[in-house]
Structures are given as structure tokens and as C-alpha cells.
Amino acid sequence: MPLDPDARAYLDRLAAAGVPPVTELSPEEARRNTEAAAPGLFGPVEPVGAVADRTLPGPVRVRVYEPAAAERDRGVLVFFHGGGWVTGSLDSHDGVCRTLAATTPCVVVAVDYRLAPEHRFPAAVEDAWAATAWVAEHAASLGADPARIAVGGDSAGGTLAAAVALRARDRGLQLALQLLVYPVCDAACDTPSYRDCAEGYGLTAAAMRWYWQQYLGPDGDPADPEASPLRARELAGAAPALVLTAEYDPLRDEGERYAARLREAGVPVTLVRYDGLIHGFYRMPAAIGRARDALSASAAALRVAFGGP
After folding, report:
1. Is the pLDDT score of 281 beyond 70?
2. CATH code, domain with 189
3. Could you point out which of 74, 83, 242, 251 has its C-alpha 20 to 30 Å from the C-alpha of 210?
4. Is 152 helix (H, G, I), strand (E, B) or coil?
5. Where are the beta strands (DSSP E) in 139-291?
6. What is the pLDDT of residues 165-187, one digit of tens each?
7. Catalytic one of 155, 193, 228, 298
């Protein structure tokens, strides 16, 4: 499919602005750029009942979004932001979390995991798991049902969600859903989509390799399944999954291969490819209108997973 007109217009504006590629920036500069752009890319945010920042044991900082609906025993989504494990924050994905909380509706616990290169793998995974385990133990205090817990994230956050889903399986925590939005699934960086979408679509193959270098450093194991979930030997018993991919994204093929492997292992999977779209579109509804479709699909999947209509 041709590139979506909104995506094309966004990429043209990005090129005209002359923003340097992430490979030419320091992590601090890359983070500032992400934070500065995020509000304008998302646009107006959904109203929710309450928002509160808190610090969990670890320490791990989280932001809890409560929907306006007052009923108890709601589902809860533990959400991990994207940003190549280097950028992104509670603020950069505030609009996404508000939307999912309001439209599911459910409690959303967004996790401010430690970032690389200051804190390399497996620090982010450890924080993601610590937050999920805390939610499982304290769901009732959040007005949520401990039997209705989902994990999710976009890009690098999708990797963390997949890793947490495998830990949950191994440690006896039953999850309702893993929501994987164009997840990073393999450090090999060698799929056809890495070749076909290497440049010109926002996220580049070179940028992904840079993110992996920051995340793993000189000593990290790229074959560790908590870094590269596609390398996991066994996926049977993992939580049901909704996997969203974008056509013009270097990560497209590995996300779709992960969905296929989950399905082959007997895991219920829904895979949706957004033709014509690019990596990152999920948090850009003000720039790319079809982001709303993906957010709505996510909320619908969460409703079903939590036992709703």
C-alpha cells in the first residue's frame, strides 16, 4: 500500500525541520527531542478520573490512571513506554495511557523503568517485572481485579511486555493479555523489513542498531530471550496477545514472526498490520489520524480480555 498521506506529511515536516538522526545525538539530547515533540504529536488527551504518581519498592516510579467510571473490580493494564530503552517517559506516553484508561475503561499503571545506557539490560526488564508483580499483589487497592491484569507497550515497551509475559508464565501469574505494539523482538536486525525500510520512514535500521548498542552495551547477550523474545525456546502458555505492526517499519517482520511463533505454540493471537503506516504512529494521533484506529483496537481487545463486551 502507498505510504499513508498523514505519514508522508509528517515525514516531510520532520525532514524540513532538519532534526539530526538519533545516531548523531547524545542520549540526553535524544530524550529532550522526544519529550518536546510528544504533546504536539498526540494532541488533546482524554479526561480520566484521577492520575497519581507513586514510587513502588525497588524503587520504581509509576503513574496510575483511574478511569472516570466508578465501578470496582476493573481490569488493570501495566504499560511500558517505547523509546528504544533510551528515550521516552511517563510524560511522552501520557496521551496513550489516558486514552486506554478512558476508553477501555481500565486502570493503567505506566512504568518509569530505568533507561540505557546509564542502566543497561536487564535493568528495564527487572523494573517492568517488579511493577507487574506489585500490581498483581495490590490490584485490589487500585480498585482492580487481580485476575484481570494485562501488560502492554509500544516498540521497546512491547519488548518489555513480551518479556514480562514470559516471566509471568514461568512464575505462575496468569495475565489476561499482552498488548504488543510494533514490538522489538530480535537483536539480529536482519529481516527483509530491515532492508526494505532501512531509511526514509522515520525509524531507521541504523537507529535501531544504535538503540541496541545503548541497551546491551559491550557485555549484554543479544540472544537472551528477555532482550530478544523471538529467541525464546518455548512460548506455549504465554498470555493471549494482540500484536500491531506497521507496514513501513524496520520492526515489521520480527513482530509478525513473534505473533506467528506464539500462534504455533497454541497461544491465542490477533495480528493486525497497519498498511501504509510507520513506526511510532501509535502515539501520533494529532499527526497521523489512523493512530486512533489502533488505540481503539487496543481498548477493544482489553475489554474482551477483561471479560467485557
Report:
1. yes
2. 3.40.50.1820
3. 242
4. strand
5. 144-154, 177-181, 241-248, 269-278
6. 999 999 999 999 999 999 999 99
7. 155
Catalytic residue chosen out of the listed positions 94, 154, 253, 279: 279
119 assigned to active site: no
Q: CA 121 to CA 220: how far, in whole Å?
A: 7
Residues 119, 91, 63, 80, CA torsion sign: negative
Q: Cell triple for residue 222?
A: 543479544
Active-site pick, 4, 127, 186, 249: 249
Query: For residues 221 and 169, is the Cβ–Cβ distance under 8 A?
Result: no
Q: How far apart are alpha carbons 259 and 237 in whole angstroms?
A: 14
**In the chain, how many domains are there?**
1
219 phi and psi angles, rounded to 5 deg: -115, -10
Q: Which residues contact 170 (CB under 8 A, 6 or more apart)?
A: none
ω into 2 cis (within 30 of 0): no
Among this protein's residues, is 249 annotated catalytic? yes
Q: Are 104 and 302 in contact (CB under 8 A)?
A: yes
pLDDT band for 72, please (50, 70, 90 cuts). Answer: low
Could you list the residue range(s) of the whole structural domain that residue 42 is in? 5-305
| 138 in active site | no
Instruction: Indicate if the pLDDT at residue 295 is higher than 90.
Output: yes
